[in-house]
Amino acid sequence: MAAGLLWAKRAASYLRISVPFRAFSSVVKDLKYADSHEWARINGNSATIGITDQAQDYLGDIVFVKLPEVGASVSQGSSFGAVESVKATSDVNSPVSGKVIEVNDELTTSPGLVNGSPYEKGWMIKVEMNNKSEINSLMDSEQ
Question: Which residues, 6 or more positions from 65, have their beta carbon under 8 angstroms from its beta carbon?
Answer without folding.
Answer: 81, 82, 83, 84, 107, 108, 111, 114, 124
